[in-house]
Amino acid sequence: MTASMDKEVGEFALIRWIKEQVGSENTLIRGIGDDCAIDQLAADSQLLTSTDLLIEDIHFKREWTSMFDLGRKSVAVNVSDIAAMGGTPRALYLSVGHPKQLSEMEFKEFIRGFIYEARQYDVVLAGGDICASPGPLIISVTVQGHAKTGAAIQRHGAQSGDTVYVTGTLGDSALALYLLQSGQTPPDFLMQRLHTPGARVAVGRCLSEEGLATAMLDISDGLMADLDHLLVASGVGAEISLAALPLSDAFRCELNKDRALIDLALAGGEDYELLFTSQRSDLDQYPSLKPGVVKIGTIKTGAGITLRQDDGGIYQCRRRGFDHFIDE
Amino acid sequence: MTASMDKEVGEFALIRWIKEQVGSENTLIRGIGDDCAIDQLAADSQLLTSTDLLIEDIHFKREWTSMFDLGRKSVAVNVSDIAAMGGTPRALYLSVGHPKQLSEMEFKEFIRGFIYEARQYDVVLAGGDICASPGPLIISVTVQGHAKTGAAIQRHGAQSGDTVYVTGTLGDSALALYLLQSGQTPPDFLMQRLHTPGARVAVGRCLSEEGLATAMLDISDGLMADLDHLLVASGVGAEISLAALPLSDAFRCELNKDRALIDLALAGGEDYELLFTSQRSDLDQYPSLKPGVVKIGTIKTGAGITLRQDDGGIYQCRRRGFDHFIDE
């Protein structure tokens, strides 16, 4: 028996173990265990697909997160892309390149977290690939979902006069990362926002089913960068009110010590909140949108983002986009 | 402008360039450029999905392959999983973790090869993710296809008395790798089989559309390992005739120097040929199956694989499964 055979047997045993964890909740025609998964979509629905690659020391550091939370986050950040179209997530495909240093126990904790989070959204692990990595831990996730034909909310529909909304609060995740990078211990709330973000599936679905949004995406690169994507796709500009940005108590607490931290809410990234535009200006009072949404500005003709301060002045954000851990 | 902003602008420019390469052949409702791709499946069809992770120095070595061929192979090995269910491939999702050492020119060559090969199967690059890798080049591909409802050929339908078939020839890819690893220069034919394998989509489709196969998969881990998967899933055994194994002239030429190389045809891996069972024993004469298929044995009750020699004796294969470049 060769080393590679030992490894192969180990991999098949792991795949069997994963299949057992997924259990009988699998509503697909065929899940893990054949060349492909097989699924049947409803006749009046469209298929939504997105994929993300998470690489150790680029997107996460193992010393800052538990493997369980890393599994959870791997699901949430992908499901967030389905939420960002107003879709319903259905199946996940997971590939892992595992370094020698990762123990079987750690790998199983990762899988437990992955399946735990998948259950929150009623989505099933339907297939994947496991192999050795000569370096970093590599996590590649593809998510499939569906939306009623024509109901998926894309990026390009915003029009002058539309109101700009976001869900949740901004900057928490980036602030946690900033504190970790500067050697501090972030409050639990911020750590949770960084390591176990939630995907806003319910709000997204409500917006698509009731036809309330003209354009939408999720904030992964930061409000400024992602709003810019939406504006460019739609051929419009936006004026955003700085005072309207929804901030958590934990964020405000740090902001009181250092006003420049507002840039983390504008451009920190990894919020996984929904950013959308609507012809309606009263959605912050809309009863079906739970949790609620917050108005932060208005779509204008032209291009670009104007950040308006309370005193009428224009604020210049000094950050842009998501900082990877390593720069090139 | 920070280093990370430079990088981000570079990535967006690359994604725009990729979108241009894909061009207007995109028959999806939405391809590259939103949170998800959007696709509409025909009402009477089922969705097939598979995913594979390819990591430098585990699955390939850059000094042995051109980036163009690596792009081609990344497509073919994934499309092969759709072929293995008798499906029609439709969309590809590509994530790349690129190391600093990989130049933009090399990356673009990879994408050109990827799109070239995708066109061979009339399948479209529909989305993906690009990020930096701190180590190896990482390629993660997800493929989606479709099959008429109920027509996908799974692994578990083989029955005693069925005939076992394969497409093409076996062992070419493994022999090329063996020669490279021992410092020799493989003949062009073997190199092509290693670096630009083809996916047997037409044969697979014909088998599913005409309901000719009881079980099927593609040979990626080697005939012995993959046949074993099929047998275990079906609860049967098989007798395979050594003399019936289809071998290329280039393979026979090396085999004449060293008889032990037959194990590469049995267990070398990366053939990407179809292995299937059928109640019919005349499919090697079937006019619609182009290119043709070869009978290699028979399904038996019981379990396991018997390798029958011409003299009636039983052959023992001394290899098993695909050897990764590095052992753990």
How would you characterize this protein structure?
Two copies of one chain form a homodimer. Chain A is an alpha+beta fold and 328 residues long. Chain A folds into two domains: 3-148, 2-Layer Sandwich (60s Ribosomal Protein L30, Chain: A), CATH 3.30.1330.10; 163-315, PurM-like C-terminal domain (Phosphoribosyl-aminoimidazole Synthetase, Chain A, domain 2). Chain A has helices at 3-22, 67-83, 104-120, 172-181, 188-195, 201-209, 223-234, 249-257, 262-267, and strands spanning 37-39, 45-55, 88-99, 124-133, 138-148, 163-167, 215-218, 237-241, 274-278, 293-300, 304-308, 314-315. A seven-stranded mixed beta sheet of chain A has the order 7-9-6-10-8-11-12, with helices on both faces. A four-stranded mixed beta sheet of chain A has the order 2-5-3-4. In chain A, helix 2 runs parallel beside helix 6 (201-209) and helix 4 crosses helix 5 (188-195). The longest helix of chain A is centred in the first third of the chain and has 20 residues, at 3-22. The model of chain A is unreliable at 1-7 and 322-328 (pLDDT under 50). The interface between A and B is large, with 75 and 75 residues.
**How many discrete structural domains of chain A?**
2
Q: Report the helical percentage of chain A.
A: 25-40%
Q: What do we call the CATH topology of the largest domain in chain A?
A: Phosphoribosyl-aminoimidazole Synthetase, Chain A, domain 2
Strand order of the largest sheet of chain A: 7-9-6-10-8-11-12
Structural class of chain A: alpha+beta
Largest interface: A-B, 75 and 75 residues
What's the story with the biggest beta sheet of chain A?
7 strands, mixed
Q: How many individual helices of chain A?
A: 9
**Helix and strand sequence of chain A:** HEEHEHEEEHHHEHEHHEEEE
The count of β-strands of chain A is 12
Assembly status: homodimer
CATH domain class of the largest domain in chain A: Alpha Beta
Radius of gyration of chain A, in angstroms, nearest whole number: 21 Å
Name the CATH superfamily assignment of the largest domain in chain A: PurM-like C-terminal domain
Described by the principal axes of the CA atoms, the overall outline of chain A is: globular
Identify the CATH architecture of the largest domain in chain A.
Alpha-Beta Complex
Q: Percent of residues of chain A in beta strands? A: 15-25%
**Average residue pLDDT of chain A:** 91
Q: How far is it from the N-terminal to the C-terminal residue of chain A, by CA?
A: 43 Å
Unreliable residue runs of chain A: 1-7, 322-328
